[in-house]
Amino acid sequence: MNSLVHHLKIWARLIKMNLMGQLEYRANFVTGLLVEGGYLIVKLLYILVAFQAGKTIAGYGPDEILVFVGTFVLCTGFYAGLYMMNLFQLSTLVRDGSFDLILTKPVSSLFLATFRRSDMALFLLDVIAGLVLVGIGLVRLKTHVDLGLVVGYAFFTASGAAVGYALWLLPMTIVFRMVNADAVAGLADSFWDFNNVPMVVYDHVGKFVGVFVIPIFVITNFPSLFVLGRLPVEYAVWAFAAPPVFLGLAVLAWNRGLKHYSSST
Amino acid sequence: MEKYLVSFGTGLKAALEYRANFLLSLLAATSPIVIQTVLWLALFSPGEVLFGYTFGQMVAYTVLSQLVSRLVRTGFEYQINEDIRTGGLDRYLVKPLGYAGYRLAVFLGEKSLQSLFMAVILVVATVLLSMFVGLRIGPLEVSVFLASLVVALVFNFLLFWCVGMAGFWMTETTFLFEAVRIVIITLSGGIFPLTVFGPSAKAVLSALPFRFTIQVPVDLLTGRMATDAVVGELLLALVWAAALALLGRTLWGLGLRRFSAVGS
Q1: In terms of residue numbers, what domain contains B52?
Q2: Distance CA B94, CA B81 (A)
Q3: Residues linked to residue B49 through DSSP beta bridges, in sequence order
Q4: Which residues pair with B210 in a beta bridge?
Q5: Is a pLDDT exceeding 90 seen at residue A98?
Q6: For B49, nearest residue in chain A (alpha carbons)
Q7: Does A184 touch chain B (CB under 8 A)?
Q8: Which of A61, A85, B8, B73 is a good FRET partner for B217, with 20 to 30 A between their CA atoms?
Q9: B111-160 pLDDT, tens per residue?
Q10: Is the pLDDT of residue B248 over 80?
Q11: pTM for this model (two decimals)
Q12: Which residue of B has its CA nearest to A37?
């Protein structure tokens, strides 16, 4: 428990330092927001397609799709704001030997390598935009929002964020064996986009793989299914089990990968 | 001319060195293809036309636009920025070759190898598309597609050359380049066909030149654009390219006045 508090305190410091650094280079801060705004537009295009087509997909109308995409935007805040930059920089850290410095610090190398950079601007942009989209969707659907719904939504979102982190980390552990793993980062990043459309569009096999094998759908579909009152019990149980299972696998893969690390300096 | 051929060879060698990276980036293109194909499967009823496309045409567009967008993608703007930021640009300024010509030759060198990979994948994709969604492609479509692809490559080079000039005015441009890239891909029809945006937006986007990089080559290959319209379209693209070349030249001139070779 002490270790957790210790790491949380360090993380808070890192976030503060990153924010100060970002505010120092304001042009970067603004263009960073522009990038995320661009990705947001791409996600909104999927809503546009749903509304322009005006169709129901597997019993889900455009307003429900709005809730799904809104949740995806919200979860992207966690990904883009907290993990993504670390994902793309990990390869460089290993390649140029900067990773040595991380190994010398008296904290977990995994923690420091994957949480040292953050971008609160991207985080807030996506979280706020996501909540607005989900809010509009729920209002249009005339959904009664109470505390239970909010707490449940927050739990499934947190569970999804933890699974998302693990799923991102697993392929990246190959970085210790490959000199240039930039494309692996790009590949892992592209899988994130599977949540651009709700899992309901996939067939049974697709859903099974996306929920239980490579649980990409756990990340953003479960919170939406919950607020729409359509989350099956087995999925709710899996939302509790998936984070420890996949985080455990990711930590194991990281530790095994570390054994292959040889400094380039 | 020989110096540019050597530069072309440099790009070719770089592409050979990072071939695994390019192949993995192509693998990353499968995600949007799968996602959108599944979406179209859910949205289209049998025989229906949505956004002006039949199901087969839409799937073909999805696959081919992703491949073309990967092929025409640039990356040299980051190198330009690096050269300006570190002062390394002065190494090129004292050499008897134009920097833009050097970058274009390296870019085309890289793309020549990637085009070979892509040609194989495109052949496989078109065979599969003809088998499963009834896409018909003849030698005429292939010829005009190849011509439009060359125009698209040159056009995209000029577009991102202009974007790369921002390095003279900004010290850190990574985010800016990425933001511009996303917007341009969207406006080029690289995410969805431009008809998805609705008739009014489509009319505006069709008047802009970005569609020459993705939508036009794909529409020519799939036969959605009449081949007798090719000459007019390509000429229009070349006019836009000339305007971009002029803009790029002006920005280069203005930028060089600010360049102080700091760090070299």
Answers
A1: 2-258
A2: 18
A3: B54
A4: none
A5: no
A6: A53
A7: yes
A8: B8
A9: 787 777 778 888 888 888 888 878 888 888 888 888 898 889 889 999 99
A10: yes
A11: 0.81
A12: B179
Which of B174, B180, B182 should be substituted to probe chain A, the one whose Cβ sees the most A Cβ atoms within 10 Å?
B182
Check CB contact under 8 Å for B35 and A196: yes
Please indicate if any CB of chain A lies within 8 Å of the CB of B99.
no
| Number of domains within chain B | 1
**Residue A84 at interface with chain B, using a CB cutoff of 8 Å:** no
Average pLDDT over residues A14-19: 91
| Residues paired with B50 in a beta bridge | B53
Of the candidates B59, B62, B164, A206, the one whose C-alpha atom is nearest the C-alpha of residue A221 is: A206
Q: What is the pLDDT of residue A264?
A: 65
Contacts of residue A131, defined as CB under 8 A and 6 or more positions apart, other chains included, come to: A70, A74
Would the CB atoms of B186 and A186 count as touching at under 8 Å? no
Residues contacting B37, CB < 8 A, separation 6+: B59, B62, B63
Tokens representing A116 are: 């040292």
pLDDT digit string, tens, across residues B153-195: 889 999 999 999 998 988 777 788 888 899 999 999 999 999 9
Residue B263 lies in a domain: no
State whether B43 and A55 contact (CB < 8 Å).
Answer: yes
Does residue B60 have a pLDDT over 70?
yes
ipTM of the predicted assembly exceeds 0.95? no
Best B16, B22, B175 residue to mutate vs chain A (most A CBs within 10 Å): B175
The answer to whether A186 contacts B173, with C-beta atoms less than 8 Å apart, is no
**Closest to B133 (Cα-Cα) out of B57, B65, B63, B62:** B57
Q: Within a domain: residue B223?
A: yes
Kindly report the nearest CA distance between residue B174 and chain A, in angstroms. 8
Q: List CB contacts (< 8 A) between B23 and chain A.
A: 183
Q: Is B264 part of a structural domain of the chain?
A: no
